[in-house]
């Protein structure tokens, strides 16, 4: 490999390492977003192991920050030991990210099954008070996703809360936001959200898992490029004792 080629590899490697520092923040944000969103939907999806990919993503993000610093230092100082360690750690993180992608895909396929098995029980626990966790969860989901009931607003007629309230109405959270005088009365169904929440909750949770999958795939690709550049620099270093430095130190 010529001087121009090896210099390009080192320059690209420094650039990719700087991307790692940015990627660390993005991955930590993606993992935190999954945790925060899960907290809003946890009553509809009881399998806490769904958070495993998100937890791993946050750990990988923290590790990527350290990798970026090590990679920048090793590339600029042209340390064979540092670059070899850099490649090894990158390979380890790459394997972890592949595992995250697989886990994310597996949990994504199970979302609908888990929601279907738990959502009826959540609606049966609704009592309309803000101090009750299932009630807060349902009201939050109905407002955020603009939905009402499991399949539609008529599902509320089969809940204990509807029978106990005996006022032929659904929760206020079913009301369209632009109708300030809506009371949830079933005599005015046009004031209510028409779509059920089950399908929308499933869609939302699948979108969250896809966020984790795409984040892992994107940065796994960047890591592959970094490993190739680092290997090119290492091979050139091994075959050429007089190594061209990326930053030339001036003589005193």
Question: TL;DR of this structure?
Answer:
The protein is mainly alpha-helical. It is built from 6 helices and no strands.
List the helices and strands and how they pair.
Elements: H1 3-41, H2 52-77, H3 80-124, H4 133-145, H5 160-165, H6 197-239
Helix pairs in contact: 1-2, 1-6, 2-3, 3-6
Keywords:
6 helices; 252 residues; single chain; disordered C terminus; mainly alpha; elongated
Structural summary, described in words:
With 252 residues, the protein is mainly alpha-helical. Helices cover 68% and strands 0% of the residues. Mean pLDDT is 77; it is low at 1-5 and 242-252.
- Mean pLDDT across residues: 77
DSSP strand tally: 0
Q: What ranges have pLDDT less than 50 throughout 5 or more consecutive residues?
A: 1-5, 242-252
Derived structural class? mainly alpha
Global geometry: elongated
Could you tell me the radius of gyration in angstroms? 26 Å
Element string (H = helix, E = strand) = HHHHHH
**Level of helix content?**
55-70%
The main pleated sheet reads as:
none
Number of helices: 6
First-last Cα distance: 31 Å
| Beta-strand percentage range | under 5%
């Amino acid at each position: 490999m010529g001087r121009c080629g090896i210099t390009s590899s080192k320059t690209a490697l420094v650039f990719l390492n700087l991307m790692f520092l940015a990627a660390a923040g993005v991955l930590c944000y993606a993992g935190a977003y999954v945790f925060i969103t899960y907290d809003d939907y946890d009553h509809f999806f009881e399998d806490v192991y769904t958070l495993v990919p998100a937890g791993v993503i946050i750990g990988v993000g923290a590790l990527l920050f350290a990798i970026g610093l090590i990679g920048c230092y090793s590339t600029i100082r042209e340390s064979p030991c540092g670059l070899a360690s850099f490649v090894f750690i990158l390979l380890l993180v790459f394997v972890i990210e592949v595992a995250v992608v697989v886990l994310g895909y597996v949990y994504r396929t199970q979302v609908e099954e888990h929601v279907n098995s738990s959502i009826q029980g959540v609606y049966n626990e609704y009592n309309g008070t803000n101090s009750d966790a299932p009630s807060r969860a349902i009201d939050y989901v109905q407002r955020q996703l603009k939905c009402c009931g499991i399949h539609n607003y008529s599902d509320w007629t089969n809940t204990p809360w509807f029978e106990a309230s005996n006022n032929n109405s659904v929760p206020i959270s079913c009301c369209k936001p632009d109708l300030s005088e809506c009371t949830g009365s079933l005599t005015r169904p046009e004031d209510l959200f028409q779509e059920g929440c089950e399908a929308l909750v499933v869609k939302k949770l699948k979108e969250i898992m896809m966020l984790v999958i795409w984040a892992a795939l994107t940065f796994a690709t960047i890591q592959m490029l970094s490993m190739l550049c680092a290997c090119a620099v290492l091979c050139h270093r091994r075959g050429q004792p007089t190594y061209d430095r990326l930053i030339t130190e001036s003589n005193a």
